[in-house]
Design a protein that fits this description.
By secondary structure, the protein is mainly beta. It is built from five helices and 81 strands. Belongs to the intimin/invasin family.
Length: 1037
């Protein structure tokens, strides 16, 4: 079966030139050195020729101008100047930027000097006196070319055996000559870009055939000549350079005197040429030039002949280029005798190049105008998009066709610009059509905004435009866009969150029918139940909700099936109106008449959701009345204060008057109807001491007991997930020792620091966290050496242990207390510290610190001198899962080994009984009254709440807080670890606080006096990260 293949044949315009006329230059002269330029500055290119006495004479006479009277018709010739007598070549161009053509003439004989002369044009057919430039040899050919690509015409001259280059200064003057030696017997050269760098190179004829190539360095200087073979026999008499096959590299065209062949050597971009292809033209070729004479964008060849004895001497041949380096058969035109110089230029301003020939054998100039039909002028831009229904983010193929009526304008070479109604469109940059496009080009466009969109293409130069419509559908669901909940608003305000499912470009997806779930970091938020979108929602639904916890909050919407499909709205919630006010501390205390109460009064104000309310006015007041009849107290300064960010307001210091008795002080909170009541007592003054019977010898004061203020050094270990190293710090944060008690273990290390060895420097006790059989290691603080290793519980117990230190047996050496973590009972094991220093394990007691043998949340312990008896008492707190119960035991009773040691106060709850995350404890004399105070830190899951209970009051079974504040990061909800340390050498213990599990590795230090100075928000002494970049929490001791 025979298949027929149809191919679109190239449309090609056949050139047609019409003889305008032949015009004499000057009687009995022979013209050469042809130039065409608008010498009279009237937008009509004129003709300038040099003249010799005859075609065979070497007597160079003068120059003449033939003015263009319009349409390429030339007027009578006029002599330019007798000074040009003897010139052998010329070139015309604007050399000084004034828009008027200037003249450069060369000449080696007669009255004209051996060099070149520059004549600046006046624009009226006359020239200014010339400026001469000497050359190293007699010049024979000249071209004016912009060698540097800067818009200035430079001079290139063939002079004897050299190429001479004079670079333009831009003002009609030129730089000193540069000379390049060549071997050019016929003294012909051509200028053009051979290697595609945009800078013209030079090719000359060469003895024995071939050519010399000089490549442009880009700055108007050239490489040394390189001999290049062309494969053409004989020495060329004329050369031309142009891109004949549209590959971006210059190709070479040559003719040989007396020959009829035009030779084409295609360039390879390096200055070398492929084997030539020759085309028969006319006999006796003497000149060649290149130009596009038929509007197809391909260079064509125009060659002139001086003829032979047996052939006509008046032929001009036109060979049309095919655009691939090949040429069609010649079309010939008859001029005057020997048209040896040819210029292609538009002389009638119709946009087509015309032919001007100097007839050397006839003393005349012939003009042919190009009557090739011009290509159709485009009238519209046709724009078509494929597909016309697209998905956001996908590519649309846009085809632009230039149309002249209903015919494609194949020669369209304008620049087009793209716009779109889609503000997110990705459009092509401006594009200039090439002839190779044949009037049609396809572009990629990406549209992203759903809906009816359009793409418009504009050709501003011809006021043409075209538009293609495209309907854009949303892409796949990528996000939830949330609105209606943002900025700052009050707790409890009703809000409506609008949820729209969108693609990656913000387009709402109307067909979404997924199920969404709502979450928030606000634990009190009132959120909607899961919701399944319906078709009626069209991708958008509004949900009422309420938020209640003050701070930086957010709400997140997530697709229950595709969990990566999500959206979050962030906002700031501020407290609502005040709803409750409670006494924090200060109630129940007493002061001797006429003296100040130990603690100011403090009140905490919250809204209905428990948020602290800041910036509220609180007025503290005491009973008024006669200072001698009513027990009362006076404030040292104004008693109206403002609540802090924590919602706490603290009164100034109170001083009891001289009347004994109990009375109530009040705190009235702005916006609340009922004042907060505080009970205070004015007590009798202390009895004066009994004078001694005889003077006692002076006694050196002892420093504060570690069982009251702790040791100066403190140990820090990482919680689960961190390294097993322990750092021992001095009070100034200097790391005095680093040890690794459990190499490779990552379950967390619990720590304590006390001087077991009696060398004046604290040693380290470290216990394992969960994950391995419980173990405690005691290490020398100075050397890091192991003093003792203890396995306090059965090997099957892997829940981890806590460690505490303090002198419970009164021997002046701290003892070691070990309690189990979660999974163990409330067991307390006490080891003799003096024995540990010797590497011996001596157990002093093992008993249940919390009277609940079935409890398996473990226990936490601390030691301090509560009674002021000179030895440490033991505090035991329930571990995780238990309420915040705290029990206290007499130290010596514990050390005696009895199973039920004597309690020093009744058990109580340090925090709300409903909390079941246990409590961390420390024991030390914060207020400096000689009795250790109980410090309670919130357990895991709680905020960083620290409450300090007065020790002396505990002995009376009173739980009077002397401080209550948020330690470290107030946003932390992972509990807080506490330890008592002697940070400033005073009689008041300092407090070290460590981040709870998952809350970082932050250490915060507080001095005792700072805590008493501002019990609700004490100023920290310092804070730092013990293990930078670790966020799993730390243990302190």
């Amino acid at each position: 079966m025979t298949k027929i293949r149809l191919e679109l044949l190239e449309s090609r315009l056949v050139p047609a030139f019409t003889l305008v006329g032949t015009y004499p230059t000057e009687a009995t002269t022979s013209p050469y050195g042809l130039s065409v330029a608008d010498i009279f500055d009237n937008n009509k290119p004129d003709v300038l020729t040099l003249n010799s006495s005859s075609a065979s004479s070497n007597t160079f006479k003068d120059a003449t101008i033939l003015p263009n009277t319009g349409g390429g018709v030339l007027g009578a010739a006029t002599t330019v100047t007798a000074a040009l007598a003897g010139a052998t070549g010329d070139a015309v161009a604007d050399l000084n930027g004034d828009g008027t053509p200037d003249l450069v003439a060369i000449g080696p004989s007669g009255s004209f000097p051996d060099g070149l002369t520059v004549y600046l044009g006046n624009g009226d057919g006359t020239f200014q006196p010339g400026t001469a430039y000497a050359l190293p040899a007699k010049p024979t050919a000249i071209q004016l070319v912009d060698l540097r690509g800067i818009g200035r015409k430079d001079i290139v001259v063939m002079a004897g055996g050299s190429i001479d280059v004079l670079l333009s200064n831009g003002d009609g003057t030129f730089q000193p000559v540069q000379t390049y030696a060549v071997n050019a017997p016929n003294s012909v050269f051509a200028v053009g870009d051979l290697n595609g760098d945009g800078k013209p190179d030079i090719v000359t004829d060469a003895t024995g055939g071939g050519v010399d190539v000089l490549l442009n360095n880009g700055d108007g200087t050239f490489t040394l000549p390189t001999a290049v073979a062309t494969g053409v026999a004989g020495t060329p008499s004329a050369l031309a350079i142009g891109d004949l096959n549209n590959d971006g590299f210059g190709d070479l065209v040559s003719v040989t005197a007396g020959n009829s062949m035009v030779n084409v050597d295609l360039g390879d971009g390096t200055g070398n040429f492929a084997a030539p292809k020759s085309y028969a033209a006319v006999n006796g070729l003497s000149s060649v030039t290149l130009g596009d004479v038929n509007y197809d964008g391909n260079l064509d060849i125009v060659a002139g002949s001086t003829g032979t004895a047996a052939a006509p001497q008046n032929q001009i041949a036109v060979l049309l280029g095919n655009g691939d380096g090949t040429f069609q058969a010649p079309v010939t035109y008859t001029a005057g005798a020997s048209p040896s110089d040819i210029v292609l230029q538009d002389v009638n301003n119709d946009g087509a190049v015309d032919i001007v020939a100097a007839n050397q054998g006839a003393g005349s100039v012939t003009v042919f105008t190009n009557t090739t039909p011009a290509p159709s002028v485009p009238t519209t831009l046709q724009v078509a998009a494929t597909p016309v229904v697209d998905t956001a983010g996908q590519t649309v193929a846009v085809t632009v066709t230039a149309k002249a009526g209903t015919v494609t304008a194949a020669a369209f070479t304008d620049t087009i610009h793209f716009t779109s109604t889609d503000p997110q469109a990705v459009l092509p940059p401006d594009y200039t059509f090439r002839l190779a496009d044949a009037g049609v080009h396809t572009f990629d466009v990406t549209l992203k905004t759903a809906g009816a969109q359009s793409i418009t293409v504009t050709d501003a130069s011809q006021s043409l435009s075209g538009t293609a419509p495209v309907t854009v559908a949303p892409a796949a669901a990528a996000d939830f866009a949330l609105s209606g909940v943002s900025g700052t608003f009050g707790a409890g305000e009703s809000k409506v969150l609008t949820v729209s499912v969108t693609d990656a470009f913000g387009n709402v997806i109307a067909g979404y029918t997924g199920t969404v779930q709502f979450t928030s970091n606000d634990p009190q938020a009132g959120l909607p139940a899961d919701y399944t979108f319906t078709a009626a929602d069209a991708g958008t639904h509004a949900f009422p909700m309420v938020f209640k916890t003050a701070g930086a909050d957010s709400v997140t919407v997530t697709d229950t099936t595709t969990t990566t499909l999500t959206g979050t709205a962030a906002f700031t919630l501020v407290a609502a109106a005040p709803a409750t006010a409670v006494a924090v501390f200060g109630s129940g205390q007493s002061a001797a008449v006429g003296t100040a109460f130990a603690s100011p009064l403090s009140v905490h104000v919250a809204d209905i959701f428990g948020n602290p309310v800041p910036n509220l006015s609180v007025t503290f007041a005491t009973p008024s009345g006669s200072a001698v009849t009513v027990p009362t107290a006076t404030f040292g300064e104004a008693a109206t204060v403002t609540t802090a960010a924590t919602g706490v307001a603290t009164s100034p210091t109170l001083t009891a008057n001289t009347v004994l008795g109990t009375f109530n002080a009040t705190a009235t909170v702005s916006g609340l109807p009922t004042p907060v009541q505080f009970t205070l007592t004015n007590a009798p003054p202390p009895s004066p001491p009994t004078p001694p019977v005889s003077p006692s010898p002076p006694v050196s004061p002892a420093g504060p007991s570690p069982d009251l203020v702790g040791y100066p050094q403190f140990a820090v270990g990482a919680d689960a997930g961190g390294s097993s190293t322990v750092n021992l710090y001095l009070p100034d944060q200097f790391v005095a020792q680093t040890v690794n008690p459990f190499p490779g273990f990552t379950g967390g290390v619990r720590t304590a620091a006390a001087d077991f060895t009696g060398d004046g420097f604290a040693d380290i006790a470290a216990g394992t966290g969960p994950g391995v059989s419980s173990e405690v290691v005691v290490l020398d603080g100075k050397t890091g050496n192991v003093l003792d290793t203890i396995n306090p519980f059965e090997s099957t117990f892997t829940g981890g242990v806590f460690v505490a230190v303090g002198d419970v047996n009164g021997d002046g050496v701290p003892d070691l207390i070990v309690t189990p973590d979660e999974g163990g009972g409330p067991v307390v094991v006490v080891y003799d510290g003096a024995a540990l220093a010797k590497g011996q394990t001596v157990q002093l007691n093992r008993f249940l610190g919390i009277q609940d043998p079935n409890f398996r949340g473990g226990a936490r312990a601390a030691v301090g001198d509560l009674t002021g008896a000179g030895y440490g008492d033991l505090i035991v707190a329930a571990g995780f899962g238990g309420g915040p119960r705290v029990a206290g035991y007499d130290g010596k009773s514990v050390a005696s080994g009895v199973s039920t040691p004597t309690k020093v106060f009744a058990d109580f709850f340090a925090f709300e009984p409903s909390l079941t995350n246990g409590v961390y404890v420390a024991f030390g004399d914060i207020n400096g009254d000689g009795h250790a105070d109980l410090i309670a830190g919130a357990g895991p899951g709680g905020g960083p709440r620290v409450t300090i209970f007065d020790g002396l009051s505990l002995l009376d079974n009173k739980t009077d807080p002397i401080a209550n504040f948020l330690a470290g990061d107030p946003t932390n909800r992972d509990g807080v670890r506490v330890a008592v340390k002697n940070l400033d050498g005073s009689s008041q213990a300092g407090l070290i606080v460590g981040s709870g599990a998952g809350a970082g590795s932050h250490i915060t230090a507080y001095l005792g006096k700072a805590i008493l100075s501002n019990p609700s928000s004490p100023l920290s002494a310092y804070d730092f990260d013990a293990f930078p970049e670790f966020t799993g929490g730390v243990f302190v001791g």
